Amino acid sequence: MCGRYTLFTPAGELESRFDATFREPPGPRYNCAPGQLLPVITNDAPDEFRRLQWGLIPSWADDAAAGNDRINARAETLDEKPSFRDAYKQRRCLVPADGFYEWVETDGQKRPYRVAFADDRPFAMAGLWERWEPSHTQTGLGDFGGNAGEGDIDSEPDVVESFSIVTTEPNDVVADLHHRMAVVLDPDEESTWLDGDTGAVEELLEPHRGDGWRAYPVSTRVNSPANDNPSLVEPVESPP
């Protein structure tokens, strides 16, 4: 799965890399977590970064808490699951990152590792996005994630725009850490993911080769979303 990631690449470099602009440049993030508003590039606005809430809320959901269980979408069942089927066909997005975390159980404890390119260059994870509008009798937003109030959502009043990260089988770098990983796209695949038909994008749902990747242990302080500072990405001594 993909439950946390980093995005500390300077805003100007992200704009150049993805040929998209920020309305308001974000600060560096070392512990992006579900429920937070994070920058993505949607297929209906490919020239700008928009902040959407991590945890896809299906349009038909009763309340926003439905996003708690939908931070990831399995590549193998995108065209089958009611939560993701329509978004897979019509609402795909790029989720910029420069690393992601996975946890390994060692001596009864879960040890976090960061996976990234050796030079920490940014990349795009394949994502799906959705719009959800609560009924006038629902308050749902306060039930989700604990972080949904971080700033203004880039959408119409009372409408929540959210996203999920697509996962697939792990590559050789991630296999020793977890049995799933995010679908990481090569730069020349990103426009196809946004605009291609399902036949074309299906071919992109394979594990990334992992060329130039590294995986290294980091501090357990990353376990708490409340911690978000540069020390989280520093390597620590590997457990025996």
Describe the structure.
By secondary structure, the protein is mainly β. It is built from 4 helices and 14 strands. The strands form 2 sheets. It has a 5-stranded antiparallel β-sheet, with no helix packed on it. β4 and β5 form a beta hairpin. About 8% of the residues have low confidence.
Label this structure with key terms.
single chain; 240 residues; mainly beta
Question: How would you sum up this structure in a few lines?
Answer:
By secondary structure, this protein is mainly beta. It has 4 helices and 14 strands. A hairpin with a 2-residue loop joins β8 and β9.
Would you list the SSEs in sequence order as H and E? EHEEEEEHEEEEEEEHHE
- How helical, in percent, are the residues? 10-25%
Cα-based radius of gyration, to the nearest Å: 17 Å
**What is the end-to-end distance?**
25 Å
State which percent range the strand residues make up.
Answer: 25-35%
Biggest sheet features: 5 strands, antiparallel
Mean pLDDT: 90
Helix and strand composition category:
mainly beta
Strand order of the largest sheet: 3-1-8-9-14
- Low-pLDDT ranges: 136-153
Number of H/I helices = 4
How many extended strands?
14
What is the approximate shape? globular
